[in-house]
Design goal:
The chain is an alpha/beta fold and 261 residues long. It has one domain: EAL domain (TIM Barrel), CATH 3.20.20.450. Helix content is 43%, strand content 20%. An eight-stranded mixed barrel has the order 1-2-4-5-6-7-8-9, surrounded by six helices. The chain binds ligand C2E and magnesium ion (MG) (3 copies). InterPro entries: Cyclic-di-GMP_PDE-like, EAL_dom, EAL_sf. It holds the Pfam family EAL.
Length: 261
């Protein structure tokens, strides 16, 4: 995205103020079991209630927050908000939080997570961190050590947007994860393209052999969901099954499944 110099300055100033003014909030998008069609976990997605521009999505501001060192503060807000909110759910499903590679730069992430779990009384086993493959572009021993330390405490790690990085298989080899999220660009073509279908089937087989679970992102049609179910992709996320929604709506949704027993 092309953003002019002045727009970037304005965005940076706005972002700084918005952290002070608590203008960020989280929507929650459920992830479903493709067989039972029931929610198994929930992803927290950050939004910004901009004073004049309305609700702004993360693609418009995460990169700027990263480049002007606001991402650590924003990331801390997201982590605390997601864990506190998930404590109120009628069913104790895991909550997934997106982590920017830049949050691993200072070395403070393991301590932040530990502190957050302590303060919110949220169990480590219910927390999932989603990292994109770009986390490995700046691969340093320190990055991997931090992620391994976090995982050793029981927090799960998932590779987000899987298949879009430069060397997806290398990342899988060099690093232990609990799950992978197959990028929406694969899901989009899964029914029409035999090539894409073959790739996703192979990813699923590989993941199964490595004892890693698979989520398909961006599921928008019944045909896609049926394909995933028939090809043994255990989990699915997308507008077809549930949009990102407010905490209140999410709670109602979880309660409605819960009451089904
Ligand atoms: P992501 O983690 O891969 O999240 C999936 C994105 O796809 C979300 O966009 C979600 O709303 C959207 N999506 C879900 N289902 C569908 C579907 O069926 N069709 C389509 N077309 N889109 C779907 P969103 O909320 O705009 O987030 C975009 C990206 O911003 C996320 O991609 C994630 O990388 C980043 N992000 C979101 N929240 C945070 C956060 O708290 N911290 C950090 N560092 N990054 C975040
Ligand atoms: Mg994600
Ligand atoms: Mg993704
Ligand atoms: Mg994405």
């Amino acid at each position: 995205m092309e953003v002019s110099y002045f727009n970037r300055i304005r965005l940076r100033d706005d972002l700084t103020k918005s952290l002070e003014r608590n203008e960020f909030f989280l929507d929650y998008q459920p992830i479903f079991d493709t067989l039972t069609r029931r929610p198994i976990s929930v992803e927290a997605l950050v939004r910004w209630q901009h004073p004049t521009d309305g609700v702004v999505g993360p693609n418009a501001f995460i990169a700027t927050a990263e480049s002007c060192d606001l991402i650590e503060e924003l990331g801390a807000y997201v982590l605390y908000a997601a864990c506190s909110e998930a404590m109120k759910w009628p069913v104790p499903l895991p909550v997934a939080v997106n982590i920017s590679p830049k949050q691993l730069r200072s070395g403070r992430l393991p301590a932040l997570i530990q502190e957050c779990l302590l303060q919110t009384s949220f169990p480590a086993e219910r927390l999932i961190l989603e990292v994109t493959e770009s986390v490995f572009l700046a691969e340093t021993t320190r990055t991997l050590t931090q992620l391994a330390a976090i995982r050793a405490r029981g927090v799960r790690l998932v590779l987000d947007d899987f298949g879009t990085g430069y060397s997806s298989l290398t990342y899988l080899r060099g690093f232990d994860v609990d799950g992978i999220k197959v990028d929406a660009s694969f899901t989009r073509d899964i029914v029409q393209s035999q090539k894409v279908a073959a790739i996703v089937r192979t990813i699923a087989r590989l993941a199964c052999d490595m004892n890693v679970y698979v989520v398909a992102e961006g599921v928008e049609t019944d045909e896609q969901l049926s394909w995933l179910e028939q090809n043994g992709i255990a989990f699915a996320q997308g507008y077809l099954l549930g949009r990102p929604q407010s905490p209140t709506k999410l709670q109602a949704l979880l309660a409605s499944y819960h009451s089904l027993g």
